[in-house]
Each structure stands twice: as structure tokens, then as C-alpha cells.
Amino acid sequence: MRKNMPVLLALLAGSYLMAAGPEPRWVRSRELEYPDSRYISALGMGKDEEEAKNAALSGLALYFGTTIEVQQGMISRYNEFVSGNQKSIETGTVMDSAVKIHSQADFMGARLTSPWHNDQNRSWYILAYISKQEAAELYHKRINTNRMLMESFLEHEGEPLRHYQELKRAVSLTEMIESDITGLGNISPAGSEYREILRYIQRLKEESRQFRAQLRFSAAIEGDRQGRVLRKLLDVMEKGGYVTVRSQGDYLFSGEVFCDEETLPVGVFINAGIHVELKNSLEEQFFSYTKNYPRVGSRNQNMAYNIVFREIEKDLETNFIKEFNAFLGD
Predict the structure, then answer these.
(1) Residue 29, Cβ neighbours under 10 Å: how many?
(2) CA separation (Å) from 240 to 206, 220, 277, 329?
(3) What digits encode the pLDDT tens for the residues 115-151?
(4) Closest listed residue to residue 186, CA positions, set 136, 134, 128
(5) What's the pTM value of the predicted model, to 2 decimals?
(6) Which end of the chain is more exposed for a tag (fewer CB within 10 A), N or C?
(7) What's the rounded Cα separation, in Å, for the pair 276 and 312?
């Protein structure tokens, strides 16, 4: 390691000298190299290269009327969607053209200059820039790919709940499409075809909301003391925006609460669990949820069961509804 140390130090010193060389023209006169007629650019400064890069990318984001945080959230949701759906759709479809976005720069079609270090103020500078022509090509390609993918989910209606899932999958893509159309409009005149896509997206979102309101859910739970689990399950569904009915719903959550009770001299101890399945009137199963809870105990039976059912109710409010929403794509 010691033999290699002089070489490593020389490389690091050489890298620093390159970064600390003459001030690049883009620091003070970026219009000369990156004219506004052809580029969107933003200068970033920071105590290190990473901070300078993030500042430059944030400047580009502000140009598009958004923030890095908002963009990162959208990219994360989009990548999760692409990763989760590529395996579920036959190869050879438009899904193959939908690619993950690996960086903030990739998303905006941005490039970065080499960093420059100012010895006087001990700051790093990086310029982030976007070629309007290249970015327009990127946005066009991504809009059309996601539009075709969105439409592929709507080719077959099928069973109502599965159709709603497909609607939600299509709606999941609209955020990225809308963002790219906005970005495109900021750098070049957007064609009338994209205005029509935006109108189509609004109709699709409204159709999804209306279709959801037509789906009715009911529940029947065995081993449910005083109907607590049933009430809580329907309550969290309603709070989640779903329509519930006491009986004869289009879809039934049928399930059971399991309790293994043990009485000891110090009190009553219970191991509990729950299993719920969602089926339609044809007994087709769509979703299931199983959870085992930590062993609890109390001085008497009623108090022990009250603790158990509070845990189940809390779980329904957090984990159950989260998994069900994910199942439907909400």
C-alpha cells in the first residue's frame, strides 16, 4: 500500500490542480458558451462538488417551476412502477421501452461541466445545462412511450376490480407524462397532440374516480368479539375512499380472528392472528392479508382481549390499508 501511496497522491493532486485551474468562462459569462437560445443552464456553488452539483440541478428544476424534492418523489414512484410491472407484462410490448431513470440529470436531460474550485473563497462551481434540442427529443420519446404504455392497460375491461387496477396502473403514468409535457412546453412549442393527451388524462382520472365509487365492499369476520374488527375494517376502507356496505357488497372481506388463550397464575396470555381474503360473488379471490401479533397478557381475560383487539385495530389502520391500496395501485 505504501508503494502505491505516492502514485495515489500524485493522481489526487493532479485532479485538484485541474479543478483549481483557470476560471472557466461559464462561471461569469455562461451566455458565451451556453446561449439561452440553445440551452437552459444554472450555476451551482458549494463547499464540495456534490453540493455544487445539487445546487446547479436545483436551479434547473426551478426553471421548470418545480423542486428537486418533488421531482425525486415522482422519479421514485415512476421507477417503482416500471420495476413492478415489467415482469407482469409480456415481453415484446411497449413496456420494454419504459426505462428507469437513474439520476436527476437523466430525468431533465441535463449535463454537467467539470467542477472548478475557487481557491480564494474555497468553493466549488459546477454548471448544469440542457440542450433544448436534445431535451425536446428526450421528452417527446418519453411522452410517447408512456402514452402507449398507459393505453395498453386499457385494452381490455374484464372483471370490474381488475379493470379498476388497470385504470390505476394507467393513472400512475400520468404524473410523468404531465411533467414531460410541461417540460417540453418550457423549451419548445408543444403540439396540439399533447394538449389532447392532457385532456385525455383528465378524463381518465375522472373515469377512475367514478369507477371506484361503483365498487362496494362488505365484510364478515369470525371470532370477532363485539364486531370490533369488522367495524374497524369497514371504517379504514371508508377513510381510504372506498364505498362500504354492511352486507351484499360486490366484494366481500371474509376472515377470522385467531386467539390462543393461556391462563396462568399471574394472568391471561393470548397469541392472536388474523386472516382476511377478498372475493367477489363468484368466489374469485383477489387479495389476502395475514398477520400474527405478539403475545400479550393481562390480569384478567377481558383486559387481555381488549389489548389484543386494540393491536388488531391499529394494524388495520396502518399495515392492512397500506397493502390493500398497493394492491389496487392507489
Answers:
(1) 10
(2) 17, 19, 18, 13
(3) 999 999 999 999 999 999 999 999 999 999 999 989 8
(4) 136
(5) 0.78
(6) N
(7) 12
